[in-house]
Specification:
alpha/beta, two-stranded antiparallel sheet
Length: about 450
């Protein structure tokens, strides 16, 4: 009789537990103006005495949240129009694995006017997830990712310069990439797309430059991945560029940044919907892509900024702790992942981030000094003291090695910004002023042994 009552009680408890805990629940969506509370119910399993021996957690995990904390953020849009294209109709060979595409298309946008001698062109190399849309124009009025840095009187003055920006090969904003259709199979390339490297990106973008009737760039400017490209431009096209600007970048990828990008790739490839890269027209690997972006966001900003912006603030101070986000910093990361995960092709992130990992100036020249010695023009290097993805010591090292390689026109600025790696997108005063001064000063006529400056203008 006693055992029968115990079995009945256990059966009732299991039934309640299955109903409350194991039954799948829908994911609730919240807008930015809704106060989100992670409601936590308790599961009580009664014992023989009035005090329950187990009191556990039961949550419907409302983890798809929206950020309600304001702060400066980069402008990223899924660009599908408003750009021009250049298509190379012949086979293009890549550096690794003898990879070949039957034809290659690159999307680009321009601002300003090319002068009669075609000598005022500046090429802006974009970052990993950026498009060719660096600034708004008549064909696309949405703000570009470097909107405040480009334009009349701006850091890159379109009254003086003809400005070009392209979407990298391997991307998904108009250029040939994994999501593009292979003309031979009439299906998306997916992961049959050739492995790419920074050299492939730069060489094809110079083919674009030449197609525009430009034989020599006035300047090559880039940040992050773009800074790798602009630096390599000075190495492999030393006679085709007059000055180089590299911001928050390096001469070779460091293991710590490789590790962070590896984790992003791993989360995407572990999503069952990734399907070995052949998910086009099928279920999208959203969970992996969202998590990859959350990891990336950690590397893009800085602890001091988050301490100032979020601290240990709770989403709802009155709610009990749960396994869902309780802190505003968790909410912020969740929002960043959700907002970005369908704007960029996961395969493009895999390919381009791997190209960044492979970057090493010394690879084809025997040593770093030998590679950097090929750069004959003035170089501006900017670094940010709070950058954890491309730490400041990498820019210091690059400036020193360029100088030791014989370049006497190296200018190096350290910026004291709280925005970490994203400083190049947000700090108009620090980054913009340095770039404008460098581009508009005739450094070729200066006899300088190089400069090392902090953002207060002092030399070291």
């Amino acid at each position: 009789m006693i055992f029968s009552r115990v079995r009945n009680r256990i059966s009732a408890v299991v039934s309640v537990y299955n109903e409350l805990v194991c039954k799948p629940k829908g994911i609730k969506q919240y807008s930015s103006d809704v106060k989100v509370t992670s409601r936590v119910k308790q599961v009580d399993i009664p014992g023989p005495d009035p005090t329950p021996p187990f009191k556990g957690n039961d949550s419907d995990f409302p983890c798809v949240l929206r950020n309600s904390i304001s702060g400066p953020e980069p402008e990223y849009e899924k660009v599908i129009s408003g750009f021009k294209t250049f298509t190379y109709k012949q086979p293009f060979q890549f550096k690794y694995h003898d990879g070949i595409l039957p034809e290659v298309t690159i999307a680009y946008e321009t601002w300003g006017t090319l002068d009669e001698s075609a000598s005022n062109a500046i090429f802006i190399f974009s970052g990993l997830s950026s498009s060719s849309h660096a600034r708004s124009h008549a064909e696309n009025l949405k703000p570009g990712w470097w909107e405040k840095f480009i334009g009349p009187g701006c850091a890159i003055d379109t009254d003086k310069f003809f400005v070009i920006c392209a979407n990298h090969i391997g991307g998904c904003y108009g250029s040939s990439g994994p999501s593009s259709i292979n003309p031979l199979t009439e299906k998306p390339y997916g992961t049959t797309f050739p492995v790419i490297c920074i050299e492939d990106l730069v060489r094809f973008q110079f083919m674009l430059v030449e197609s525009l009737g430009i034989s020599k760039l006035y300047g090559a400017v880039g940040s992050s991945l773009g800074g790798m490209c602009s630096l390599l431009t000075g190495v492999i096209f030393s006679d085709k560029v007059e000055r180089v600007v590299t911001i928050s970048s390096c001469a070779k990828s460091h293991p710590s940044s490789i590790a962070m990008r590896y984790l992003q790739r791993r989360t995407i490839m572990s999503d069952t919907n990734w399907n070995n890269g052949h998910y086009y027209g099928k279920a999208y690997p959203k969970i992996g892509m969202k998590l990859a972006r959350e990891i990336a966001t950690i590397t893009y900003r800085s602890g001091p900024e988050w301490d100032m912006r979020f601290g240990r603030n709770r989403i709802d101070p009155s709610s009990q702790p749960s396994l869902c986000p309780n802190f505003m910093i968790e909410n912020y990361l969740d929002y960043q992942g959700e907002a970005f995960c369908t704007k960029f092709d996961p395969n493009s992130l895999l390919y381009i981030s791997k190209a960044m990992d492979l970057f090493d100036i010394s690879e084809d020249f025997g040593s770093m000094k030998a590679g950097l010695s090929r750069i004959k023009c003035p170089v501006l290097i900017l670094g940010v003291q709070t950058d954890i993805l491309f730490p400041i010591w990498q820019q210091r090292e690059l400036a020193r090695e360029l100088h030791e390689a014989g370049n006497k026109a190296v200018t190096f600025y350290e910026l004291n910004s709280i925005f970490g790696h994203d400083t190049f997108l947000l700090d108009l005063n620090g980054v913009g002023a340095a770039v404008k001064g460098f581009l508009e000063t005739n450094l070729a006529k200066k006899d300088t042994d190089g400069e090392h400056k902090k953002d207060d203008g002092s030399q070291q």
